[in-house]
What does this fold into?
Amino acid sequence: MFVLDRLKNRMQEMGIRPNKTLGQNFLVSQNVIDKIIQAAVHCEAKEYIEVGPGPGALTDLLLENQLKPSLIEMDKKIAEYWQSQGLNVIQGDALKQNWSELIQTDDCCFVSNLPYQISSSIVIDRSIGPKQVRNMILMFQKEVAQRIVAPEGGKDYGLLSVIAQSFWEIEKVTEAGPKDFFPPPKVASRVLKFTRKENDVDGIKLLKLTKAAFAQRRKKLLKNLSSFSLDQESLKNELKKWGYAESVRAEQLKVEEFQSIVKNFL
It folds into this structure.
């Protein structure tokens, strides 16, 4: 209860209450906080960025560990509070920022108890770049976390799986239940750590390809890709080499095979 009491006092000082529209479910579990901070410290990054600091459950511990983060925060009162504490704060939507301009070094770690409504989009955006984001420690709704790491062939495997696994080594940090937040959400959560892979695949092309490939999951891959200006006969031959029939669907292809299509056909 110590974390909850401290954060309630901080919220009173800020003049805020959790805003459902902004997806504000503030983390109050010391155990979960400690595991996130331990993962962040282990990254030994030159620079840290936190999205959605709220009343500071993670921010306070980042500061205690001398990992002074830059903050991105939508809520005006919260942004003004952290600015008054001497931190670099960008007030606005993390999805609309130019991260290449935000990052000041070649080694940035992104830490966040993410608002659930932006979690998939921000993973896709940061996968594509900038490459200076070398690590991410992020909180997700458990179902989204499962989609991120899903293997090919199942219902959870899709665009998010292919993009995330193409650019990151991904490992579980910890689980979090509704009681670990204030107010409690109606879903379970999971924290994942991402470590960037050395990968020369074109992220923009891969995103366009996977969007088309999974646009209508029940249709054949070749049908979904018919709008692309690629050599369908050559692609059919490539699929045959990989052991697939022409009726193959997108969810059957491995991550590496999507990358191969980008490199050889787009």
